[in-house]
Amino acid sequence: MRILVISDVHANLTALEAVLQAAGTFDAVWCLGDLVGYGPDPNECVERISALPNTSCIKGNHDAAVTGEGDVEYFNDEAGSAILITRELMTPANIQYLRELPEVQSMKTATLTHGSLRHPIWEYIIDPQIALENFPYFETQVALVGHTHLPVAFIMDDKNGKIHRRTFKPNFIFPITMKTILNPGSVGQPRDYDPRASYAIFNPEAMTWEYHRVAYDFQEVQKRILKIGLPEKHALRLSEGW
Ligand code: ZN
């Protein structure tokens, strides 16, 4: 079984389409939140993702802010103004879709959330210590998170209880043998200085994680970001991936 794992699409339809094309055939889609915010295509991304077969989608902090559940004041100026513009752009039906998304979803083999297991919407799992503190909060072998926009794995070593942090080269197939927290990186706004869209394929029977990157036409997205009056920063950062 091939499960396409995506996160932090951030209203970037061009990047999303590139990922869907590159991913080939898949049996299900797990989307780890932040469908909107920063980018120009919030309605299109919600409609595209929700129409994919066997989609399970989680609510991110930007999604919560757009629906009015999260406070815009928690965001910096540029992120906050993107949220206000996104709210104006979105249809009531698509905002309702975001409102109904769960913060955590437990599948048979994996637990899905946006930020962290103990603070689903807001906490960033950025280092082994924060990862370690989150391991008691899930029972499946695998937890899948987004939010940092950085593709990474935190592996709990059964022998000594220590956490190993691992990053992967694209197209690498990682066998998951221990309890692991995995982040597929961001589709629509990567922050590891690689501008290509990031995604993964999880195979729960083989217990493997395939990590991938795909180039897309970010210049076309940058033009549309500026055209609708979103902050220039959100356009600039797409060229370099920060
Ligand atoms: Zn995000």
Task: Give a topology summary.
Elements: E1 3-6, H1 13-22, E2 28-31, H2 42-50, E3 55-57, H3 61-67, H4 77-89, H5 92-99, E4 104-106, E5 110-113, H6 128-134, E6 142-144, E7 152-156, E8 163-166, E9 173-175, E10 180-183, E11 197-203, E12 208-214, H7 218-227, H8 232-240
Parallel strand pairs: 1-2, 2-3, 5-6, 6-10
Antiparallel strand pairs: 1-11, 4-5, 7-8, 7-10, 9-12, 11-12
The structure holds zinc ion.
Residues 8, 10, 34, 60, 62, 147, 149 line the site of zinc ion (ZN).
Lateral strand order in the biggest sheet: 3-2-1-11-12-9
Spans of at least 5 consecutive residues with low confidence:
none
- Using the CA coordinates, give the radius of gyration: 17 Å
Q: Count of DSSP helices?
A: 8
In terms of DSSP E residues, the strand content is 15-25%
Order of helices and strands: EHEHEHHHEEHEEEEEEEHH
Gap between N and C termini? 33 Å
Largest sheet descriptor: 6 strands, mixed
Helical residue percent band? 25-40%
- CATH topology-level fold name of the domain at 3-103 and 168-177 and 185-239: Purple Acid Phosphatase, chain A, domain 2
Summarize this, please?
30% of the residues lie in helices and 21% in strands. The chain is built from eight helices and twelve strands.
Describe this structure in words.
This protein is an alpha/beta fold. It has a domain at 3-103 and 168-177 and 185-239: Purple Acid Phosphatase, chain A, domain 2. It is 30% helix and 21% strand. It is built from 8 helices and 12 strands. The chain has helices spanning 13-22, 42-50, 61-67, 77-89, 92-99, 128-134, 218-227, 232-240; strands at 3-6, 28-31, 55-57, 104-106, 110-113, 142-144, 152-156, 163-166, 173-175, 180-183, 197-203, 208-214. A 6-stranded mixed β-sheet has the order 3-2-1-11-12-9. It has a 6-stranded mixed β-sheet with strand order 4-5-6-10-7-8, covered by helices on one side. Strand 2 (28-31), helix 2 and strand 3 (55-57) form a beta-alpha-beta unit. Helix 3 packs across helix 4 and helix 7 (218-227) runs antiparallel to helix 8. The longest helix has 13 residues, at 77-89. The protein is globular and about 55 Å long. 45% of the residues are buried. The structure holds zinc ion (ZN). Residues 8, 10, 34, 60, 62, 147, 149 line the site of zinc ion. Zinc ion (ZN) is lined by residues 8, 10, 34, 60, 62, 147, 149.
